[in-house]
Amino acid sequence: MPDLPRPVAAATPGPAPAAPPALSIVVPVRNEAPNIGPLVAEISAALDGVPHEIVYVNDGSSDNTAAVLAELAQTTPALRVLSHAASCGQSAAIVTGVRAARGEWIATLDGDGQNDPADIPALWQFAQAENRDGGSPLMVAGWRTTRRDTQVKRLSSSFANRIRARLLGDATPDTGCGLKLFPRALFLSLPAFDHMHRFLPALVLRQGGRVVSRPVNHRPRMRGQSNYGTLDRLAVGVVDILGVMWLQRRWKRPQLRP
User: Fold this and answer.
1) HEC states along 205-249?
2) pLDDT at residue number 233
3) For the Glycosyltransferase 2-like domain, which residue ranges apply (predicted)?
């Protein structure tokens, strides 16, 4: 009698790949170790029930930011950590985070705790409602109507906003607010350069998108020290504005025929 074929054991299916999150929170940080734990806890609480990920980009910190993030990642499944070998600036950290993010929508936050994560759900809900009818892609920009900063920082920021709005025509009262929400694909279509995060509304408009500002909460810095000074911002701001003006003039959006 011929041997019967041996039964082949069914392959054990591996774990199903995790579904991509609906929303990715990108947080660039440099030397913000004491602010990381409280901010991650606030983000997690604000987005409870929403499929999300928290992407921290450590931009070459010299304090114990890396150690804090590594320890926190062990107990926070939604937390992903990326690190630059050397500091490349806030814009580079945001670009790194957005490129690595898996969500269709991105929200950015400053890592100092002054932006309130509790504002994110309302901004996201507004953006989704605005996008239901199609049309141009939308960026929602946070507007710190009540600043919790020093008088010098408030005055210099107000002056810079007026000059920038006049020269670039971005119609955004507070481009310096770190809390912004936008489709990932929209951001990836923008030109990347140092300090680009300060000009995102103008770049989005250049790309044919829309920008809407919404009031958000702003809080005083409770821990750590700012990585920026007033004079260094003003010094690079003039050159950057001229550069963005050049970009605006050197691009024509193609219109497809129906």
Assistant:
1) HHCCCEEEEEEECECCCCCCCCCCCHHHHHHHHHHHHHHHHHHHH
2) 58
3) 24-187
Using alpha carbons, list the distances in angstroms from residue 137 to 22, 134, 143.
Answer: 17, 8, 19
**Structural domains for the chain:** 23-223 (3.90.550.10)
Give the separation between CA 197 and CA 190, rounded to whole angstroms: 11
Q: Residues 107, 179: contact at Cβ < 8 Å?
A: yes
Q: Is residue 189 within 8 Å of residue 207, measured between CB atoms?
A: yes
**CA-CA-CA-CA dihedral for 28, 107, 74, 15, to nearest 10:** -130
Mean pLDDT of 192-196: 93
List, in order, residues 6 or more apart from 104 with CB less than 8 Å away. Answer: 20, 22, 23, 183, 184, 185
The single residue listed with the structure tokens 């929200």 is: 107
The number of residues in the chain equals 258
Q: Using DSSP, state whether 86 is helix, strand or coil.
A: coil
pTM metric for this prediction: 0.85
The tokens for 154 are 């408030």
3-state helix, strand, coil in the chain (%, to 5): 40, 15, 45
Q: Which amino acid is at 23?
A: L
Helix, coil or strand: residue 196: helix
CA distance 109 to 120: 9
Do the Cβ atoms of 178 and 75 come closer than 8 Å? no
Contact call for residues 114 and 136 (beta carbons, < 8 A)? no
User: What per-residue confidence (pLDDT) applies to 5?
Assistant: 44
- Measured in degrees and rounded to the nearest 5, phi and psi for residue 127 equal -65, -40
In a 3-state reduction of DSSP, which class is residue 9?
Answer: coil
